[in-house]
Each structure stands twice: as C-alpha cells, then as structure tokens.
C-alpha cells in the first residue's frame, strides 16, 4: 500500500468504520480502512445483530396506530440515560442530536441507501414503571429486512466500489498497536500484519505476525468497538456498587476480537476515556449449542409471559419482567446468584421466543414474507428456537412440574430450588386468570401488551395457566449474563474529535461507534433503549466522516 497516500485512516472495518469512510469519500477524501480480521469479517459485530433501528414517528409506526414524537422520545431517552456526571455534557449533546436525527432525516437516509423494514415495530425495553423514568413509551424497534446483514450490506457494497475506484484502500489483517503522535497531534498508525486467515466470519483467527506497517495521514478515526469479548476487562470495569458483584460465569455475546485493546492504546497516546463503568449486558443469555466464537452466547428476546425466577427460586417482582428493564433486572438477579430461570409453556415459546442475531433469524435475514409467516405463525416455535429446545444445555422440557424442577436441579446442583415453593408461586399466578382483572403485575402487563396489535399478532401469547397440561409441555431455561456493549469509552466532542483527560482536543484523532460509547463517550447514559447501538454507529460514523 506504499503507493496509496490516504487523507484519513480508519481503524476498524465494522459498521461505524464503513459509515465514516463512506462520508469521507463523499467529501473527496481518500481513506485507508484497516482491520485486524480478514475480508470475510467486513462489517464486524453489526453483521451478527438483529438489525433493529431506533427511529421515531415513522410510517411503520403510524400504520400501527403508534403516536410518537421527538418530544416523547427525548423524554424517554433522558429518563433512561439519567445523566448525572460533569463529563456527561458531550454525551448529552450527542443524545439530543441523535434524537433529532432519529425523528427527522434518519429513515430517509437509510432508505436511500437501500434499507427496508419489517412492518411490525418491536416494543423493546419497556421500562421501569414510571413515565419519567427508564424505557420506551411506545414501540420504536424497527427490524431491518436482512437483519444485521441488511444494515451492513449497503456499506460493504460501497467499500468494494470505492476500493475499485481508488478512493478507499482496504487493509485487512492489519492490527494497530500504536498511534503515531507528532508535536501533540495524531499523525498516523503503526502495527502488525497478521498471517492470512480463511476462518469463517466470527471464528477465532491466528495472531501470527508476518510483518509490520506504519502509515501516516491528516486524521485517524478509531472505530474499534468495545470490550464485551474480554471478560477480564468487563470485570475490571464492572460497577459493583450499582449492579452487584460481577458474575464469574458469563457467556460472550460478541466475538473474541472485541477485546477493548484500542482503548488503552488511545489512552497511552493522550486520549481521555469516560464512563468506563457504564455497560450493557443482557440477563437472558444461553450457551449456543452450535458455537461460532469461544463461549458463544445467544440472547433470548422474550415476550412478556415467561415466569422469571432468580437462582433461589423466587419469582421476580415488577418491573423485573421479561423485556422491561435490563439493568434493573440484572441487579435483581445478582442479589440472589449468577443465573436465573424462565419457566414457560409450549404455547409461550411458540408465540414469544425469538433469538438475537442474524444467523438465528433465517426468515428475516435471507427470506421473504412467506418465510416469515411460516416461521412466526406456523406450528411450533421458529426452527432456531426449536433447535435450542432440543440441543441447548440450558433447556429442560417436561410434562409435569416435578420432572421439570428435577431437571433444573441437575443443571444447577449447587443451587437447587424447592419444588413446593415453585409450585405455590405458579399456582398463585394461575389463579389470577379467572377474572378480567388481577393484582398480578405480569398478567396486567401481558394484557396491556396485547392491546398493541403488533404484540398480539406475533409476540404475546394469550394468557393461560402454566400448570394446565393442555398448554404444555413445561419448559425451563437457565439464563446467564451475556456480555454485549460498552456504554462508555473515548471522550469525543460533537464533531467526533477525541478529547484529552483535561478536555482539550487531541488533534488528528476522531472516534465513532462503540469505542466512544456510540458518541461523546456515552450517549446512552446508564441505560439503552435498544436499536440505539446500530443507530449510534450510523450517527457517530457520519459525524466523524464528515469532520475528519
């Protein structure tokens, strides 16, 4: 690549990196795009996602009778973010401007690039029970046709076209190990060239070094992701005072190359990092029976009907219900142990269980309308869910509660649960179904969910008795913490420029995506509203590419 003189070096060929390169090329800038993985991994983590985008007041929402607005979305965001630190000034600015974009030109910009959306808008992260607090007041989770691959594809196609036109140079298997700093400004990148790899996307690749590189440019943009694949680093920054002690057993929701090493490389070059204790890990993780990366975990995307029990066998109270308050539920789970349990019926799993990830949703990723109707409304759960039910080490299926609890205790003999205690709690819940009114908050939530036609159609089962054999068999699922996103990182201003610990601009260095907490060093604050990870990559990638 000695004959290619870049104006901008982008380190990290995931979604944010490609968006930054796309915007830079639109300005006539020549871009060198580096990544430590091989060409088959172009697109990074976003490829594996469900493809959900947080958008506000869209045609998809309006067709479903959802009344949304910038004002309502901003209220939800700020109630969820709970910004309370001096260094939250830039994250707050990013949040406000992201809401403006999500309620304004975002959908048309994505549409012009070729993205389209499933017409039923998902209602994710429904909140902690108060209107001024955490959660989405209305459904805003727009699933892209093609899932994560459908979000990545327009940019991957453009990177190939730009490379052919000489506007972008793609440098795969280039692992950045150092930023070059000249007179207080970042002027380039140096690192190792790794041996070629034919490993499939997401699999671990060789770290054998075959050479070195050093490139200079007017600006460097870091888009290297978070720390979720490095559990030692996750535990190092784990906020024990807020969430409780970090679990020793976690499953990995991201490949092992998501290791956070660039955070320390940037820090040693003068960059400031903020909000490193803010992170987003899910409670509904299960071990992938058909793993791609080490310790591969998959998140269950549950509807509201599964009964959720902590490790001691106590049913969790509202708002710690499936799909409502991720971090609040995580804290509640860790008060009792490291794992938790869903107990449900075949009717619930058929209607309500979905799995996160492009590879777990073939109908939405590779299929069309007929595939979706067959998978979501046909007999049985989706093929991916049924495969986990059959092969997954965390699943127990039984015709009666005695056999179910015995199977649960075989999985976690260190924390057995009491059959009578479980039976009494489920029976009490079932007794609330005899009237159209109830004091059980979860039953009230189920009925509220079914008032939304999207949930009633494909996401929420009709309320029924768990212990009635006609609704069986019974199913229990052991749930582990699955690591996912960093909500803090490199401190950036609203132009994407990385700041020093004192708040000064570190000239020549920009950041986008998860490495900067998706903007500013943590534009989510303490809580994410979902669809805001991919959306944050798009938004912050645009800003960095437009300003570098």
TrEMBL record:
**Name of the protein this chain belongs to:** FAD-dependent oxidoreductase 2 FAD-binding domain-containing protein
**Gene3D superfamilies referenced in this protein's UniProt entry, alphabetically:** FAD/NAD(P)-binding domain (3.50.50.60), Succinate dehydrogenase/fumarate reductase flavoprotein, catalytic domain (3.90.700.10)
Q: Does the keyword Flavoprotein belong to this entry? A: yes
Co-factor requirement: FAD
InterPro entries registered for this protein in UniProt: FAD-dep_OxRdtase_2_FAD-bd, FAD/NAD-bd_sf, KsdD_DH, Succ_DH/fumarate_Rdtase_cat_sf
* Keyword annotations from UniProtKB, A to Z: Flavoprotein, Oxidoreductase
Domain FAD-dependent oxidoreductase 2 FAD-binding, first and last residues per copy: 7-534
């Amino acid at each position: 690549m000695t004959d290619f003189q870049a104006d901008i070096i982008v380190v990290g060929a995931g979604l944010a990196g490609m968006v930054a390169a796309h915007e830079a090329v639109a300005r006539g800038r020549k871009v060198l795009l580096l990544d430590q993985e091989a060409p088959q991994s172009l697109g990074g983590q976003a490829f594996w996602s469900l493809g959900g985008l947080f958008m506000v007041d869209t045609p998809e929402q309006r067709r479903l009778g959802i009344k949304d607005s910038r004002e309502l979305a901003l209220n939800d965001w700020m109630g969820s973010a709970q910004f309370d630190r001096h260094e939250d000034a830039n994250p707050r600015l990013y949040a406000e401007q992201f809401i403006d974009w999500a309620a304004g030109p975002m959908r048309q910009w994505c549409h012009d690039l070729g993205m389209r959306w499933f017409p039923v808008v998902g209602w994710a992260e429904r909140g902690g029970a108060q209107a001024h607090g955490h959660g989405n007041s209305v459904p805003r989770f727009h699933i892209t046709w093609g899932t994560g691959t459908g979000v990545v594809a327009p940019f991957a196609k453009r990177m190939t076209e730009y490379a052919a036109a000489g506007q972008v140079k793609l440098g795969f298997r280039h692992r950045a190990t150092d930023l070059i700093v000249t007179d207080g400004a970042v002027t380039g990148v140096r690192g190792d060239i790794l041996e070629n790899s034919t490993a499939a996307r997401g699999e671990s690749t060789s770290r054998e070094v075959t050479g070195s590189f050093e490139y200079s440019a007017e600006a460097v943009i870091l888009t290297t992701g978070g720390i979720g694949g490095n559990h030692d680093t996750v535990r190092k920054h784990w906020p024990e005072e807020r969430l409780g002690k970090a679990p020793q057993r976690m499953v990995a929701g991201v490949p092992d190359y998501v290791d956070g090493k660039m955070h320390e490389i940037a820090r040693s070059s003068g960059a400031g990092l903020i909000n490193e204790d803010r992170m987003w890990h899910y409670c509904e993780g299960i071990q992938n029976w058909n793993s791609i990366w080490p310790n591969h975990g998959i998140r269950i995307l549950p509807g509201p009907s599964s009964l959720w029990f902590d490790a001691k066998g106590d049913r969790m109270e509202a708002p710690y219900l499936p799909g409502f308050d991720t971090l609040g539920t995580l804290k509640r789970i860790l008060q009792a142990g490291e794992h938790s349990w869903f107990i449900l019926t075949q009717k619930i799993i058929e209607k309500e269980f979905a799995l996160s990830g492009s590879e777990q949703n073939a109908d939405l990723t590779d299929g069309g309308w007929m595939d979706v109707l067959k998978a979501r409304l046909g007999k049985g759960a989706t093929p991916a869910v049924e495969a986990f039910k059959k092969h997954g080490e965390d699943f127990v299926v039984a015709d009666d509660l005695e056999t179910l609890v015995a199977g649960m205790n075989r999985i976690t003999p260190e924390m057995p649960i009491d059959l009578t205690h479980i039976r009494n709690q489920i029976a009490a819940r079932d007794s609330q179904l005899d009237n159209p009114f109830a004091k059980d908050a979860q039953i009230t939530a189920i009925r509220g969910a079914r008032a939304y036609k999207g949930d009633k159609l494909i996401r929420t089962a009709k309320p029924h008795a768990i212990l009635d054999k006609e609704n069986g068999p019974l199913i229990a699922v052991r749930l582990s913490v699955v690591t996912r996103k960093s909500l803090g990182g490199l401190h950036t201003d609203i132009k994407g420029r990385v700041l020093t610990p004192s708040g000064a601009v570190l000239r020549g260095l920009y950041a986008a995506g998860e490495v900067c907490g998706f903007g500013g060093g943590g534009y989510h604050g303490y809580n994410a509203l979902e669809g805001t990870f991919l959306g944050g990559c798009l938004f912050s990638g645009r800003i960095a590419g437009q300003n570098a």
